[in-house]
Amino acid sequence: MKKVCVTLTIVLLLLSGCAKKPVITGNVGSPINLTPEIKKMEDTVACSFKWNFTTKPAESIMDVLSFMPDSRTFSVSFVPDAPGDYELQFSSQTTDGKERFKQVFKCTVSPDTTPSSIAESEVYPTPAKDLSAPPPEYVQPGTLSTPSAGYVVKPAKPVPSKPKAVVRGKQIPRVDGKYTIQISAWTNYNQAEAALAKLRARHLDAYIQKAYFKETKETWYRIRTGTFDSYSEARKAMKDLKKRFPQNEFWIDFVREDQ
């Protein structure tokens, strides 16, 4: 009888140790904060960290670029873009690539019922094959009937022999009064990282920003550089960039909010 009691005690201890962690709940559009529960200090000493999505709703376009501040930090947050179940994995690795610790997080996200306050006031055409194609043309404030509208894009000239271009980017919120310079864009994240590495090797401070076009259900990874308070400042910087990188095509856009 004593042996039976001891056995039952061990089983209960094992079951309590294997108890499932509570599911994290959240809403679309609101940040969810994640911090691993490390039990041994050696699981983090001299280790690199990695986050990734192992499961997400079919409508979601979240990827490694969605983690804030980035996917290689210990604690992260992300803003879910679709309701449903998410599963995320954290791991720590030694310098030789050996995994020391792993933890899985499960999140259930509900729809966002808060009405959006973002005004979708800007529409600009985007090339069909590559976002680094010739830039849109901007006009200065003062030539517009509504001065408060700021910089706008001149409508593209109609080409009778070609079908009308799909207007994209309508849903991407901008930061008013802030401009940046785009260098290139890629549909493949690894290619974008490779292009970014080449630019940084030549001492250019650039970054990757993900852009999702709901109109065509396309995701692009855009390489951009700089944040400027005026269009004229951005234009001056772009002239210098053209001298340093004559093989690239640059164009100016508003700074966009991360997606």
Mean of all residue-level pLDDT scores: 76
Q: In CATH terms, what is the architecture of the largest domain?
A: 2-Layer Sandwich
| The CATH homologous superfamily of the largest domain | Sporulation related repeat
Strand order of the largest sheet: 1-6-5-3
Helix/strand-derived class?
alpha+beta
Residue share in β-strands: 25-35%
**Whole-number radius of gyration?**
24 Å
Number of helices: 3
Shape: globular
Q: Give a quick account of the main beta sheet: strands, pairing sense, barrel closure.
A: 4 strands, mixed
Q: Give the number of domains.
A: 2
Per CATH, the class of the largest domain reads Alpha Beta
Low-confidence blocks of residues: 4-19, 116-153
**Total beta-strand segments:** 14
Word description of this protein:
The chain has 259 residues and is an alpha+beta fold. The protein folds into 2 domains: 21-110, Immunoglobulins (Immunoglobulin-like), CATH 2.60.40.10; 125-141 and 170-256, Sporulation related repeat (Alpha-Beta Plaits, 2-Layer Sandwich), CATH 3.30.70. Helix content is 17%, strand content 33%. It has 3 helices and 14 strands. The protein has helices at residues 2-17, 189-201, 231-244; strands at 24-27, 32-34, 48-55, 76-78, 84-93, 99-110, 124-125, 138-139, 152-153, 167-168, 174-186, 206-213, 218-228, 251-256. The strands form 5 sheets. It has a 4-stranded mixed beta sheet, with no helix packed on it. The protein has a 4-stranded antiparallel beta sheet with strand order 12-13-11-14. A two-stranded antiparallel sheet has the order 2-4. Strand 5 and strand 6 form a beta hairpin. The chain is globular and about 55 Å long.
